[in-house]
Design brief:
The chain is built from 3 helices and 7 strands. Helix 1 packs across helix 3. It has one domain. The N and C termini lie far apart (about 30 Å). By secondary structure, the chain is α+β, with helices and mostly antiparallel strands. The strands form 2 sheets. The chain has a 5-stranded antiparallel beta sheet with strand order 1-2-3-4-5. The chain has a two-stranded antiparallel ribbon with strand order 6-7.
Length: about 120
């Protein structure tokens, strides 16, 4: 798949707001279909998906394809999986939980991993 077709798919699947957020902030926030206060923060490039509730990280998720895929396609896959079957998405992902809370109330897995 070419970079152009991957971007076309991304534009077709994301809302205008999500696409703008992805370009400007390098991630998109996907609301949980089942938990009102939960969002999934999916990075534009390889990285862990943040699970955030009330502005705090509650866990990180790692779910990657077996074979290489363009980053844009991976963003689309995360969005579609979360919206279509959040329960299975959570079951398939490796879940990493915070081991301490910093002074500002933010959860950190370990020093050096950004929220």
């Amino acid at each position: 798949m070419t970079k152009r077709s991957a971007d076309e798919i991304l534009r077709a699947v994301l809302t205008d707001e999500q696409y703008g957020q992805l370009i400007q902030q390098r991630y998109i926030d996907i609301p949980s279909p089942s938990e009102l206060k939960r969002i999934y923060r999916v990075p534009k490039h390889s990285g862990l998906v943040q699970v955030r509730e009330e502005e705090s990280v509650t866990m990180w998720l790692c779910l990657r394809p077996v074979e290489w895929m363009p980053d844009d396609d991976i963003v689309v896959i995360h969005k579609l999986m979360i919206e279509a079957d959040e329960e299975t998405y959570l079951q398939k992902a490796n879940q990493l939980f915070p081991i301490y809370v910093d002074n500002d109330g933010g959860a950190l897995l370990m020093p050096g991993i950004d929220e």
